[in-house]
Amino acid sequence: MNEVSRQRHWENVYATKGESEVSWFQETPALSLELIRLVGAIRTSGIIDIGGGASRLADCLVSLGFGDVTVLDLSAAALASARSRMADNANQVTWIAADVTTWEPSRTYDVWHDRAAFHFLTDPKDQAAYVARLRRALRPGGHAIIGTFALDGPERCSGLAVSRHDAGSLAAALRAGFELIDTRRHEHITPWGTPQRFQFSTFRRERGG
Ligand SMILES: C[S@@+](CC[C@H](N)C(=O)[O-])C[C@H]1O[C@@H](n2cnc3c(N)ncnc32)[C@H](O)[C@@H]1O
After folding, report:
1. Closest residue (by CA) to atom 9 of ligand 1?
2. Is 83 helix (H, G, I), strand (E, B) or coil?
3. Separation of 95 CA from ligand 1 center, angstroms?
4. From atom 15 of ligand 1, which residue's Cα is the shortest distance away?
5. Ligand 1 pocket, CB under 6 A
6. φ, ψ for residue 74 (rounded to 5)?
7. What's the CA gap between 96 and 147, in Å, rounded?
8. 18: DSSP letter
9. How far apart are CA 143 and CA 203, in angstroms?
C-alpha cells in the first residue's frame, strides 16, 4: 500500500467511526503505561506515540504529569478527535500529522511507543524506512516499545493485511544496535468481545549502536 492510499484509508476510518467503534479501542492503555514506567520514564522524558491515532495514551500521560508528549499519526482526523477530547490538556501535547515512513524527525526522544502501527508495514522497504526514523528519533540509551499482532494473532486489522511479529522478527527488522530488554504476550479484547493476540517488545537503543 502506498503512502497516499494508506492515508486515505485511515482518514476514512477516523472520519466514519467513533472512538469505541474500532477494534483497537481501549478505555485505558494499561500495558503501555506499565511498559513506559518500566523503562524508567520520568516526567521530563520525551515520549512519542507513533501511530497514536485517537488513543487515550496521551491523555493518561498528561494526567500523570508527563510534560513532553508527542503523538504522530498520518490521519489528521484521528489527531483532531484526540485533541478535541483532551480539550485544554491537548495544548500540552505536540501533534504531528505525518507518515512515519517519510517523516523527518527534528529532535530526539527518550521513549518511542507504537501500539499497532508498525504491523501495517508489510513491505520490507517501508519497515526499513520506519527503522531509519526510529534510529534518528530515539536517543542512544532510549527505549522503543513496539506492540504488534503476535505470530498467532489476526492476519488483518482495519481491513488491511498486517505482518505479525515476535521479539525475534522485530529484532531482525531493527537490525544491529538495539538490545531486547522485555517481551510479553498480551490479549486485547475488542469492543465487541473478540480476543486478539498481541506481543509487546521493548528494546534499548545501544549507545554507539
Ligand atoms: C490500529 S490503529 C492503533 C492506534 C493507536 N496506536 C491505539 O493503540 O489506539 C493504527 C494507527 O496507526 C496509524 N498509522 C498507520 N500507518 C501509519 C504510518 N505509516 N504512519 C503513521 N501512522 C500510521 C493509523 O492512522 C492508526 O491511527
Report:
1. 55
2. helix
3. 14
4. 117
5. 6, 10, 24, 51-53, 55, 73-75, 78, 99-101, 115-117, 120, 157-158
6. -80, -10
7. 20
8. -
9. 6
Model pTM score? 0.98
**3-state DSSP call for residue 124?**
helix
For 88-127, the pLDDT digits (tens) are 999 999 999 999 999 999 999 999 999 999 999 999 999 9
d(CA 47, CA 71): 9
CA 52 – ligand 1 centroid, Å = 6
Q: How far is the CA of 128 from the centre of ligand 1 (A)?
A: 17
Residue 71 C-alpha cell reads as 503523538
Cα of 122 from ligand 1 centre, angstroms: 14
Atom from ligand 1 closest to the CA of residue 100: 20
* Tens-digit pLDDT profile for residues 63-75: 999 999 999 999 9
**Can you give the pLDDT at residue 209?**
65
